[in-house]
Amino acid sequence: MDQRELVRASRFLSRALRHDPDQAGIRLDPQGWAEVDELLAGCRRRGMHLSRAALQEIVDTNDKRRFALSPDGTRIRARQGHSVRVDLGLEPCTPPTLLYHGTVGRFLPAITTGGLRPMKRHDVHLSPDEETARGVGARRGTPVVLTVAAGRMHDDGHVFRVTDNGVWLVAAVPPEYLGEPV
Ligand code: HQG
Q1: CATH says 3-78 is which class?
Q2: Which of 82, 100, 107, 163 is the pocket-test mutation for ligand 1 (most atoms within 8 Å of CB)?
């Protein structure tokens, strides 16, 4: 597959596995897994002809390792980023002292007042380093990076989880844990 096709297919999969399984004609189990055969059939019905090998290539080469196959290769899910309710089965864990959130200036007034909210997703997504967060913010314009006092939040009882591709998840970040934009 060429790069453009890979990106198009990856977007289709993100939508199907995170946001709109019905539209792709697939079902997700409570942990977010879809049957690969069902997914490939659903793709075909929507004019997205994807072979098993192409799917494997997307899973292996995706820039953010967005998708995971089950060990036997029969099921696939998104590693994070869902808007549909799924239980990823991630255990609570201790975050580093600081985490980072990439956003854009136009959201700052609302964030300063209300803190970081998950918006359409299940959780607020935080990055382990400033550079990654800058990339996240840059999707929407000139990026602004906020530091999050994750260690202090954890000490105060907020529950953190980390996906196996290194994205930190928390239900919300109250404004008192946010640092000045860097
Ligand atoms: C902002 C991508 C107003 C928040 C990325 C963000 C990430 C508020 C937007 C992953 C707010 C939500 C997640 C508040 C937060 N008022 N705006 N109180 N609280 N916001 O896409 O973090 O490509 O849901 O700053 O790389 O941008 O999908 O979250 O700008 O890892 O794999 O509301 O999505 O990964 O946007 O991105 P999103 P995000 P994928």
Answers
A1: mainly alpha
A2: 107
